[in-house]
Amino acid sequence: MPLFDKPAIADHSLNFPAQITYPAPNMIFRLNDYLYRHAWFFVKNLTTVFGIIFFFLSPLISFADSFAETNGYWAIPLSNAAKESDHGAVDRYGVPFLEGKLSFTTNHSTRVQFEQVEIGSKAKRIFLLGMTDTGKPHSWTALGTYSKRYFIGDNMGSIRLDYTDGSTQVFPLIFGESLWWGEIFYANPEPFSSDTNFQKTLQQSLRLYPPTPVKDGKYVAVIVPEDKLIRDIFVENSPVKLGVPVITGITVESIANEKIANGIELPGQSLSPDFAKFAVEKPLLSLDTDTNRVQAALENLKRAVYVSDRDFQGHLAAQIPKGYSGPVVSFSGDIYATILANAFPANVQDMKDKIDDDGMYHTSTKGAPNWSLYSGFGTYATNVGCYYNDSWSRDMGRSLQELTELGYTNEALRCADYCLRTARLWEEPSAPKFDGHFYPPHWGRIANKPQSWCVFENDGHGLTAMFLYRLWLRLPDRDEWLRARWPDVKAAGDWILWQFAHPEISGATNGILFTTSEAAGMVGYSVYPDYTCMNALRALANMADSIRETNSATQWRARADAMRDAMAKQYIINDKKYGRVWTLNHAGWPNKSSVLGPLILPADYQGFTPEDDNPDWRPVNQTTYQRLITTYKPFGFYGQAFGYGQGLVTQAALLQDQMRDATEMLKWAAKEIYDPQIDSFIVPEACDIDPTGRYWYRMGDLGNGVQEAEIVKMLRLVVGVDDTQPDRLRLYPRMPYDWNEITVTGYPVLFEKAEKVETTRLHYKLKRTDGGMTLTISADQSLGPIAARLGPFEKSPEISKIRVNGQLPTDASIERSGDSWWIRFTLNID
Fold first, then answer.
1. Which parts of 312-441 are beta strand (E)?
2. DSSP for 779-809, written as a single string
3. CB of 220 within 8 A of CB of 89?
């Protein structure tokens, strides 16, 4: 049952003169006090029934008396409170406070911060205003340490009462019990506003008033001290946390109008009934209190706010969003396979819906909820869509590549023309300039909003150019389309050349680009944006050749070759533990996953097999991957930036055939994607996880463009339809070890027939059998022979246990790749 029904959230501000003599108690209050203090005398000496009745009623008299007395309130001036001569008091639920803020000093040896407040008297109760923390949870930049990351149950310090007899009383400051997030919770109140279970759970755990969102983020706590003279109050911060407790007011309720040292006497109001009851029933608990019940309440609160394995015990039905027209993909084996199968169409549809009729791409889903940007703790606000008006080039380039691969050419055509229009915005009068000159057309960080601080977002530029290439491949009239847009397409390639030709402006040096992007740690030199631009130059050169623009093609290929050589020289280092790896200097995103660029980006241009990468870089990619996965715990969780983390790392595991790793990573991806509170399969922008690995929560946008697009690419690698190069269509599915079936219907594929590129639809079902696999596959058109590979297998498989369309493949061979075994063969699709 809730402790109270509707907590008062009044926030009345009252101003009082500097000194007011507190009114003397009236006769009724004195009588109540007398009766209460002599209750045992009546019980001992009266044998009548009236005396016994009075004895049982005396606690009720005490309860009423605790609210009826007009004992003095003494505000303790804090470090930056107003001067005593002109101070103003604020009323909170009947308790007056002088607002200020505790000022902490730092003990550099232990990083413990503290503040001491003198009292010098007994106290009936101590009221504290604020009860939050200066630190905001911020996983996006604080990965690897929990000093700036805060979770329910974290001990943030303590309040200690020092008594004159030498004894002490300690009250721990614990998030979810004696501290809570203030303004963050008010701005992001869901699911509190709509979930009565959450409301009750918060009430049961929180010993702050009110257990609701408060506009100014300040709560009230109550301490009931022992019946002793208090020397001082000592507030201490946790030595392992960087934030400090926020206490903006301390008011001592004295006993019988005793004076409080250094206090300023203030008149109090009648306590609001709900707060009066709270003050009696839920004061802060001292350290020596039996905490079993408290811990149980905290655990219940964690389960209400966070996601855990408990949320994945049941069964989920297959879901396809209304209006979805893409390929139908299903995965079977466990609940995580079902989640990822549902996530595929949900995110593809959400990406498609981000494209307007005029081609504009919206990075955020319109009206999408948001989990406190990157500084939340698990609650969210509805109807935000914070990047809806922006076209971030990185998000646009990756999302449109995925949509193009999945057959959404109409939407892609509209967006391609939009991309070319936005590139020309750098020539508009309002665009930023250098030395009075316009920058050449290109895509900066936000394509539709050229800004001086995001000129050189090279990863976004390269990914957007790659989208144009993937679209061009699929167009039946692609030469005509390209000629009509050649000046704009040429500008996309020439922007990279321009940077190298103007190093004094661009910062390009030693054959590598200077990038102002998250992929380069905001500002620096990073292999990921360089690789995207190298890919783009090679792709654009293919387009140029098709319409005999050989001069551009030659220049772009030469620069791409030079960038490849420069990347090896500038970015590969020798690590004492791992050997040759890609440097972490200027590596981007929380998991530093931008260093995986040379491993995962070849799948955009070359193909899905391990041998499609640069063979000279393969050992470097492998050691770089190993360094990353051993750096972050728990293993398999890389969700602090969802697409950049969970998506990129899982793609790296798949492309290296590290299927034991990939199986665990895909399971974590499913856990982070599915939100049982809102029954959603849309990818969040980020997730954070508590130190135990048992609880995690979302951060940022629901459906942030590049995050969901990288997860779609991850699932495309699982499906394994590889038409990256149409003249060599391949099927390379990678089925996680705890799945038993992949079914694909209507999957669009590019294939070359009579030197002409065409598109058709592919259908297949792959099932695990006893020690083997069966594949049933067909297409809407004859594809002829294509290369195929099935797996993984934990040990060397028997070819006799493989069936393709009911037949044993005739040219099958067994190979070991990554941590698993595979069977490779050729199949005919007629």
1. 328-332, 370-371, 433-434, 437-438
2. ESS--EEEEEEEEEESSPPPGGGEEETTB--
3. no
For residue 163, give both structure tokens.
């008594």
Q: Three-state DSSP class for 479?
A: helix
- What are the strands of the beta sheet with 89-92, ordered from one edge? 12-13, 89-92, 95-98
Sequence-distant (6+) residues with CB within 8 A of 484 are: none
What amino acid occupies position 14? Answer: L
Side chain identity at residue 620, one-letter code: V
pLDDT in tens, 263-310: 899 988 899 999 999 999 999 999 988 778 889 999 999 999 999 999
In 335-475, beta strands by DSSP E: 370-371, 433-434, 437-438
By C-alpha distance, which of 827, 819, 820, 779 is closest to 802?
827
Three-state DSSP class for 289? Answer: coil
Q: What is the pTM of this model?
A: 0.89
Rounded CA gap, 350 and 683, in Å? Answer: 10
DSSP secondary structure letters along 483-502: HHTHHHHHHHHHHHHHHHH-
63: left (phi over 0), alpha (psi -120 to 50) or beta: alpha
Residue tagged 């038409």 (tokens)? 723
Query: What are 366-421's pLDDT values in tens digits?
Result: 999 999 888 889 999 999 999 999 999 999 999 999 999 999 999 999 999 999 99
In the chain, % helix, strand, coil (3-state, to 5) comes to 35, 25, 40
Query: Among 315, 329, 450, which Cα is nearest to 391's?
Result: 450
Burial of 449 (0-12, 13-18, 19+ CB in 10 A): middle
Could you give the maximum distance between any two Cα atoms of the chain, in Å? 115
Q: How far apart are CA 107 and CA 631, in angstroms?
A: 30
In 3-state terms, what secondary structure has residue 19? coil
Long-range contacts of 806-809 (CB under 8 A, 24+ apart): 806/776
Angle at the Cα of 670 from the Cα atoms of 667 and 674, rounded to 5 degrees: 155
Closest-CA residue to 155 (of 217, 222, 239): 239
Contacts of residue 369, Cβ cutoff 8 Å, sequence gap at least 6: 190, 380, 381, 382, 383, 384, 678, 702
Q: Which residues of 467-486 are buried (b: 16+ CB within 10 A; e: fewer)?
A: bbbbbbbbbeebeebbeeee
Measured CA to CA, the distance from residue 12 to residue 470 in angstroms comes to 62
Rounded to 10°, the helix 527-546/486-501 angle is 140
> Looking at residue 454, what DSSP letter applies?
G
Q: In angstroms, rounded to a whole number, what is the distance separating the alpha carbons of residues 422 and 443?
A: 7
298/308 Cα distance (integer angstroms): 14
Residue pair 271/279 in contact by the 8 Å Cβ criterion: yes
